[in-house]
Design a protein that fits this description.
- The protein has 216 residues and is an alpha/beta fold.
- The chain has two domains: 8-77, Arc Repressor Mutant, subunit A (Orthogonal Bundle); 84-195, Rossmann fold.
- The chain has nine helices and nine strands.
- A seven-stranded mixed beta sheet has the order 5-6-4-3-7-8-9, with helices on both faces. A two-stranded antiparallel ribbon has the order 1-2.
- Helix 1 crosses helix 4 (67-78) and helix 2 (34-41) crosses helix 3 (45-53).
- The longest helix is centred in the last third of the chain and has 22 residues, at 194-215.
- The chain is globular and about 60 Å long.
């Protein structure tokens, strides 16, 4: 794989390639050109070629892309073929929804622990996993391999919980708190702002309404 720095925009498009290629495999399609793929994904063929060239290209002139081969390459790049042991800190509505989401394990993310402080949920099971009190967090991580921590805790608790996980050796954090979490530790953080996506949807809906009004 090319070792040059890959832009975050390209990296964020990789899961989309993964999904479309997976669908193509299910349809029995064995090869596809960048033009055909662009028509399905609604991005330009040039953009597809540029993106894939960041990782070596994978296509053959006059043939296009071998769907299975390209799917496997992108799976390897995304680490889908690895198993990332994951814990969820915060067993409220969001934490429970994530714990019950079956596709995580299919993508290589195995939930191995869930933690909370609420006595109403501590001791219960979510998707077969017992919710432990957060007081047991340190002991659990020391005794189990944990790669990723999913944070669904209140806003004001997020920095302290994140710092605690990082100090315990967790190297990846998926943060659902409405803040752009940053730490001094050597840890990878992905901040998820669900409301941002909803507001973008609202903007697009408003734009559509305005266009329709201008036509009348």
């Amino acid at each position: 794989m090319n070792k040059k720095k890959i832009s975050i925009a390209v990296i964020k498009r990789l899961p989309r390639y993964y999904r479309y290629l997976y669908d193509l495999l299910k349809l029995g399609i064995t090869r596809i050109s960048s033009k055909e793929l662009s028509e399905r994904m609604n991005i330009t063929a040039s953009q597809i070629r540029q993106d894939l060239n960041c990782f070596g290209g994978f296509g053959q002139q006059g043939y296009g892309y071998n769907v299975e081969s390209l799917f496997n390459e992108i799976s390897n790049i995304l680490g889908v073929n690895e198993t990332f042991h994951t814990i969820i800190v915060g067993a409220g509505h969001m934490g429970q929804a994530l714990a019950n989401y079956g596709n995580f394990e299919k993508r290589g993310f195995k939930v191995v622990g869930i933690f909370d402080v609420n006595p109403a949920v501590v001791g219960t099971a979510i998707n077969g996993i017992e919710v432990l009190h957060i007081d047991k967090l340190d002991e659990f991580i020391k005794q189990n391999k944990v790669d990723i921590g999913i944070l669904t805790v209140p806003y004001d608790q997020t920095p302290a919980v994140a710092d605690r996980l990082a100090r315990l050796g967790v190297k990846g954090l998926w943060n659902f708190s409405p803040m752009d979490l940053e730490l001094e530790h050597d840890v990878v953080i992905e901040n998820v702002h669900l409301s941002d996506s909803l507001m973008v949807l609202g903007y697009k809906l408003n734009e559509m309404r305005n266009r329709n009004k201008s036509k009348n």
